[in-house]
Amino acid sequence: MTAATSTATVPAHRWRSPLLGAPRTIELEAGRIECFERGEGPVIVFAHGWLANANLWRKVVEPLSARFRCIALDLPLGSHRVPMDADADLTPTGCGELIAAVLAALDLNEVTLVGNDSGGAYSQIAAAAHPGRLARLVLNSCETPYGPFPPPPFDGLPALAADPADLGRALGALRDPEVRVSPAAYGLLARHPIEAAAFDSYALPAATDPAILGDVAKVMSSADAAPVHAAGQQLIASFDRPVLLAWGPDDQVFPLALAARYAAELADGRLVQIEDAYSFTPEDRPGPLAAAIEAFAGDRQR
After folding, report:
1. Residue 24 pLDDT more than 70?
2. Any idea which of 5-19, 51-65, 145-159, 205-219 has the lowest mean pLDDT?
3. For the segment 156-173, what is each residue's pLDDT rounded down to a tens digit?
4. First-to-last CA distance in the chain?
5. Domain residues of the chain, as ranges?
6. pLDDT score, position 231
7. On the CB side of 32, how many CA atoms lie within 13 Å of its CA?
């Protein structure tokens, strides 16, 4: 994909922003993962959460790519373009292993791993199980070792996803822009309007492609707080590298108090507040978030 790519040249559910850089496909044991790469320098890898994709990071990658090699993942969480193999493990542990497998496949070291929303939960699992490739970790408005996964108001999704047909009917409602901004959808995640092309790329894939729906049904139906809590406790006990928790004080889904508690218990936890943002901080306040990541990832002292 080049900078000349426009939303008119690809279906709405498959659009990816040219700000993300060049696309590439990585072959893993569980199937193929797409990612997008831009810039040179120390490596930053970005992981999104459920019903989002690499587009979430487009306005964060743009400024950071002047100094860093930015790799934004398209994880199989319901807004991706390439379905996984039928036997892929998409449990929380399996999704964490996918992130780790990408780092291994690309032979990345001294990585700053950045996770938002449930992508933060999976990033903690990856970091706890495979810390060797990481230099530092950024958790942006996501699960902690103390709260549920998934959090309210999304805690009914695992039961709903037990039947992919039921989940498909529910996600089909996201074709309606008014439904998308309701509290049961993205309304508590984004404080400010999401660019239409990006919003379509989040909301439409699972309603358009049965294979994508099958992947996200596996992801959601297997959601479980236990592996997230275990990973967090392991990071508290043994992860000696810096961890930045970037949080909106007005986050409607992930309480700031839990982030503050986590930062205090980690060996080198640091909390920064991003004002005027809900959980989708990369959409609401990409500039301040990019600045916080740049300051953190650019600090090579431990």
Report:
1. yes
2. 5-19
3. 999 999 999 999 999 999
4. 37
5. 19-152+224-297
6. 98
7. 9
Total count of residues recorded for the chain:
302
Per-residue burial over 27-42, b if 16 or more Cβ lie within 10 Å, else e, is: ebebbbbbbbbbbeeb
CA distances from 54 to 16, 195, 239 (A): 8, 14, 27
**Residue 16: what residue type?**
R
CA distance 181 to 48: 19
Q: State the CB neighbour count (10 A cutoff) for residue 288.
A: 18
Q: How far is CA 268 from CA 2, 41, 245, 258, 286, in A?
A: 39, 24, 11, 16, 24
pTM here is 0.95
Backbone angles phi, psi at 61, to 5 degrees: -60, -40
DSSP letter, residue 27: E
pLDDT at 27 over 50: yes
Would you identify the CATH topology of the domain 19-152+224-297? Rossmann fold (3.40.50)
- Around Cβ 227, how many Cβ atoms within 10 Å? 23
Q: Are 71 and 57 in contact (CB under 8 A)?
A: no
Q: What is the pLDDT of residues 71-93, one digit of tens each?
A: 999 999 999 999 999 999 999 99
β-pairing verdict for 69-74 and 43-47: parallel
Residue ranges in the chain assigned as alpha helix (H): 58-64, 92-105, 118-129, 157-161, 164-172, 177-180, 196-203, 205-208, 210-221, 225-238, 256-265, 281-284, 286-297
Whose structure tokens read 């039961």?
159
